């Protein structure tokens, strides 16, 4: 290959990289894909990038994109992700040249509990910006993937609230803004129950590998790590181990009372004297759990466990 051809190829590759860096900040997994240590299918698997989740794009090379997801930095195949364009620049240009008022259709929500907290970030440990009384109204700016809603209070405070603290309105409220600025992604159907949203979130991790002591989708889950992770993303705190969850969290219910979102507990050794496994009931006699036997998050039939290792069920949703 002559020098001119080589230079041409290098320029082409640089342009591709520049375009991706300039117009994309996030990558969304179209299937669950491995995060690898280098841009090669033979390199070490560092973690998992689950389908439907987003990650920060750090750089790119031919056929691969380097991402940062859940604390793991590595490479994923470009064929299995889609890049999200960064439209902030074009929006800034539009706002500077067009000062007309924009009419935005903004969903609203009603606060369900007194002393409901608006937080600075999507975490129960983040700063409390404001507390709201039952019946207060907020504007819904965005629905986040991890069980939080970005809101704006009537006095202008912007922050995050857990799903279960809010009841979404069925209609949209018209709001006039000089800059627009409201997230159009907020216009979604919020009619699903909290249990449905939790189960939908849990199913995103089907196929994520089992890892003893694991509590992260990128590196793997054990049974209680999976359950704790799912509920924590909806602002519900659970104990770390299956035994402690069974002893501390929720109220005990009979098998005949099981509803989707309840927790089911087992003694997988068959001795029926110690709880060492937990899953989330889906309904129809099925439950989702991180299974060491199958090596991943999977769905199983509750009937296969009843006579051997089923121990109890508890309800943590109100």
TrEMBL record:
SMART domains: SH3b. Residues 192-317 form the NlpC/P60 domain. The keyword tRNA processing does not apply. Gene3D superfamilies: endopeptidase domain like (from Nostoc punctiforme), SH3 Domains. Belongs to the peptidase C40 family. Keywords: Hydrolase, Protease, Thiol protease. InterPro entries: NLP_P60_dom, Papain-like_cys_pep_sf, Peptidase_C40, SH3-like_bac-type. This is SH3 domain-containing C40 family peptidase. Residues 24-85, 106-169 form the SH3b domain. The lineage of its organism: Bacteria, Bacillati, Bacillota, Bacillota incertae sedis, Caldicellulosiruptorales. SUPFAM superfamilies: Cysteine proteinases.
